[in-house]
Amino acid sequence: MEKERKNIHPQKLLERIFRITKRKNEIDLTGSVAIVNGEVSEALFETEVYQVTFSIGRGQRKKQYSLFMSPSECIPKEEIDQLKQKLGIEISGDGSLFKVERFERDFKIAFDLKNSLSIDQTGIKKGGIVFRKDHSSRKTVQLPYRKQKKKELS
Predict the structure, then answer these.
(1) Residue 149 lies in a domain
(2) Per-residue pLDDT for 67 more than 60?
(3) What angle do CA 32, 102, 83 make, to 5 degrees?
(4) Mean pLDDT on 83-94
(5) pLDDT tens per residue across span 17-44
(6) How confident is the model at residue 93 (pLDDT cuts 50, 70, 90)?
(7) Which residues pair with 34 in a beta bridge?
(8) What's the pTM value of the predicted model, to 2 decimals?
(9) Does 36 reside within a domain?
(10) Where are the alpha helices (DSSP H) in 60-116?
């Protein structure tokens, strides 16, 4: 008996596997691979172009800005300026290693996973990375202090 072969539509084939690492405010894609004609290669990934979406807020107040990145090219200054103007997020670097320099509020970075896969690591889930603004400026709640009775030494 022969096994049934499933025909996979070409649009459902994997094209990329993202290996995303977050170190503090750096996003590193070293080790990501492209799949072309069944060949898996880091070198082929260098020629890829993929979409990255930055978003702030939720629901109807959600704002997004998407840009296309290539691992072998610096992020254009115009794109950096637009991202800063629209969402208050400032980045630098290239498509394989970029750094979030400054941001005004919590935001999320989402890598387009159409025909791609992301290897989940600490802080990264399904190609998404959340950045949180330091909330140390918030008042800390202090509980009332109770004096402890001194024990008499005998």
Answers:
(1) no
(2) yes
(3) 70
(4) 95
(5) 999 999 989 999 999 999 888 889 999 9
(6) very high
(7) 16, 41
(8) 0.75
(9) yes
(10) 77-87
> Scanning the structure block, which residue is given the tokens 């290539």?
70
Residue 36: other Cβ atoms inside 10 A:
14
pLDDT of amino acid 137? 46
Work out how many domains the chain is built from and give that number.
1
Radius of gyration of the chain (CA): 23
Q: What's the rounded Cα separation, in Å, for the pair 131 and 100?
A: 9
HSE on the CB side for 8, CA within 13 Å?
A: 6
What CA–CA distances, in Å, run from 141 to 132, 138, 144?
21, 9, 10
Domain that holds residue 119: 11-131
Residue 102 lies in a domain: yes
**How many residues does this entry show for the chain?**
154
User: CA neighbours within 13 Å on the CB side: how many for 128?
Assistant: 7
